[in-house]
Amino acid sequence: MKYRGKTLFITGVTGGIGRELLRLFVERTEDRFLLLVRPKPNESHELRVRKLLDRIGIDGRADGRIRVLSGNITQPRLGLNAEEWDSAVRETDEFYHSAALTNLGASREEAEQINFQGTLHALELAREAAQKGKLQKFFYFSTAYVAGSLTPIHALEDDLPERPVFGNAYEATKFEAEKRVRQEMGRGLPTIIFRPSIVVGDSKCGAISEFNVIYPFLRLFAHGLLRKIPSQLEHSFNIVPIDFVVEASFALAQRTDTRNKTFHLVTEQPPTLKMLLEVKEEYGNHFPPVEVVRPEDFSVEALDGREKEIFSSLDPYLGYLGSCLTFDTKNARQALKKSGVSFPKTDHAFLKRLVDYALKRGYFLKPA
Predict the structure, then answer these.
(1) What pLDDT digit, counting tens, does each position of 152-162 carry?
(2) Which residues lie closer than 8 Å to 55 by C-beta, 6 or more apart?
(3) Which residue, of 148, 177, 186, 222, is most buried by count of CB atoms within 10 Å of its CB?
(4) How deeply is 228 buried, as exposed, middle or buried, from its count of CB atoms within 10 A (0-12, 13-18, 19+)?
(5) Which of 278, 367, 276, 268 is nearest to 321 (CA)?
């Protein structure tokens, strides 16, 4: 199905969600794209995008529809020169801000610079484009964990908790960023907020471009460096396949009744730690034994020196193992009802597909 062409400004296109979102829009629409990309010392912004388009198989289909802007979300005015800034303000119909630092082990300073300051700079362009140009919608990719992975609540879509308890700097900085986005929404910026949970591989084949969040944790299993986990077998962790996130985002973007709403893009039946360990057992020697210890019976001091070091690196992940946080999906369920996009099954078979793909790519063979 083809839609009337618009001009979309997209950040984070070299990241997992951004690249898949671009692929979907190129394949299904006649839209044009302004892509904000940071050049690297040995690779120009244009070369980075050419390589990206080739990797995701849309290079020929994107001819004449993409303009790559050299910039950086951490810089005022996104690092754009005056001419590029004015052009983006005039031309942008829809703004998709997906750029983020998702490394849970990153420092607070790093995460704040990209997730918070970067969002402020994106909002600066969006505000001006809404006032002086033709911007109709600003899409912000937040995270379901703005509620705080250590907060024992049922998180609502159109709200932020007053006293969230965060497990890492990623959650904290995304919370502060979404607060500012919601402030601008309250002042009239036409905003749609997407909140995916932990984004993992494709629902059908497990494919993923970046092994983040849950994957480093699994690699510690594979190398026998994680022998005890302070958690309980019935605890669940909310993971969501990347194809669901982008398909749902695309479907919601086509609607005219989503402005000023927030959508949890999560699984409604998250897998448990027990299920993950059962999958692990099926791989025999790939994953040595792991003991699950009740948090109240777990002592860091009882670990040896190497284990203490490993455990300290796990600190940003621990909230997801013992989380009592759940998510409301009323907005997303209602809006997706007739779209053909269903909430994902994240069952035993799905976990196996994730592990199979990582094994095939040799991810677990790399040093932990």
Answers:
(1) 999 999 999 99
(2) none
(3) 177
(4) middle
(5) 276
- Residue 12 tokens read as 């984070």
pTM of the model: 0.95
Q: Which residues make beta-bridge pairs with 7?
A: 32
Average pLDDT over residues 315-321: 82
Distances (CA, A) of 297 to 109, 229, 277: 34, 11, 20
What angle, 0 to 180 degrees and rounded to 10, lies between the N-to-C axes of helices 118-132 and 82-91? 60
Residue 288: exposed, middle, or buried by beta-carbon count in 10 A (0-12, 13-18, 19+)? middle
Is the CATH code 3.40.1180.10 the one for domain 7-210+238-267+326-344? no
What pLDDT, in 10s, does the model give residues 197-227?
Answer: 999 999 999 999 888 877 887 888 788 777 8
Cα–Cα distance list, 94 to 56, 155, 238 (Å): 22, 28, 29
Residue type, 112: E
- Angstrom CA distances, 15 to 142, 169, 210, 231, stand at 14, 19, 8, 31
Residue scoring higher pLDDT (255 or 225): 255
Residue 83 is encoded by which pair of tokens?
Answer: 């001419």
233's tokens: 């077998």
